[in-house]
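Hi V.,

Quick status before I head out on leave. The structure for the redesign project is tokenized and pasted below; the design run finished overnight.
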């Protein structure tokens, strides 16, 4: 068993926190169609972080219907102004969803290597190694699409900001965050 070496790295972690954003909100502050990703939507009436992660429609990671665009109609008070300002025209406010309110999917990975050394002389050897990255071919999903602007505009009620139809890709996971299993072989001469 001499001249053999095995090594491994196991990585397991909870999902990363991520922001829910709405690049179409905050038009009273950033201008219409500004595309500012610092703006956030609002919670739908009665929705919370817990309800956003429950009753999730098939194919989604979180419930997209838990969020609404913060629409303010003409003559209505702008909520973020604490009632001090009224809308001259329809627009969007900055929503009340906080930063990093949801967590993405958990991540797990195992890397493994086997090394055999063949001594030639006292100070010389040949080393043969096999390395396996993502040994069990575990799929790790990336965070979901978290921009409310991924909802088709025809599915958002212009007066209430509520998603009333197809939520599009908002809340869907469309990518992975790791590579598939990779195997690499190497020969090394030590002298």
């Amino acid at each position: 068993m001499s001249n053999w070496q095995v090594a491994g790295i196991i990585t397991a972690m909870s999902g990363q926190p991520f922001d829910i954003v709405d690049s179409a909100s905050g038009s009273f502050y950033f201008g219409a169609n500004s595309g500012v990703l610092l703006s956030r939507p609002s919670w739908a009436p009665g929705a919370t972080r817990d309800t956003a992660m429950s009753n999730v429609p098939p194919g989604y990671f979180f419930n997209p219907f838990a969020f609404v665009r913060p629409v303010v109609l003409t003559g209505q008070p702008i909520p973020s102004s604490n009632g001090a300002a009224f809308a001259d025209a329809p627009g969007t406010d900055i929503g009340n969803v906080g930063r990093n309110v949801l967590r993405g999917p958990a991540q797990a990975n195992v890397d493994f290597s086997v090394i055999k050394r063949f001594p030639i002389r006292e100070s010389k050897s040949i080393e043969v190694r096999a390395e396996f990255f993502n040994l069990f071919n575990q799929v790790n999903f990336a965070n979901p699409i978290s921009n409310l602007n991924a909802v088709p505009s025809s599915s958002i009620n212009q007066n209430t900001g509520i998603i009333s139809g197809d939520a599009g890709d908002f809340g869907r996971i469309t990518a992975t965050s790791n590579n598939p299993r990779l195997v690499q072989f190497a020969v090394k001469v030590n002298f």
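Above is the designed sequence. The first helix runs from residue 27 to 30.

G. will cover questions while I'm gone.

Best,
W.
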